[in-house]
Amino acid sequence: MSSPDATYHFDAPVLRTEQGTIRHYLPIPDEIGSALRDAGVRRVIAVLNGREFRRALIGRGDGSRCVVLGHEVLQSIGASDGEMVSVGIYADPDPDRVDIPEEFAAVLEQDPEAMERFSSMTPGMQRSLALHVSSAKREQTRIARALDLARKLRTRTLYGDRGENE
Fold first, then answer.
1. Residues 68, 115: one domain?
2. 65 and 116 both lie in a single domain
3. What is the mean pLDDT of residues 99-105?
């Protein structure tokens, strides 16, 4: 069994899911995926074509592991479907870290109730909300999304929130 702080290097093709939501991903070789799983690693630093990204290590239905790539990551590393990518991968030393976009941080700073609720959420849920804001291309849209999320956090009207009478 390998150490959880080991760095693994390999080349992998950019693949695309054919069912459900279309996503691009990099398959992790079985022996590396197993070593990371056995070490309890769920979040990794992936060095792709020399650029570093924080990513989740995702299990696939067949027992294999992969790293999902967003459009921004693909553009950043200059890769597309079927192209090979140079990969270095290791356990994220700060797996609970959440990168909050500037616009969302500013809005949360102005709304203590929304900040309190956001702070009480799991890192995964925080990452989802931060991604919703940061995925907008235009600053105006990022600000609008940040304001909308703050209102929904404060009023407990995020998708999935239950009404007080339920």
1. no
2. no
3. 95
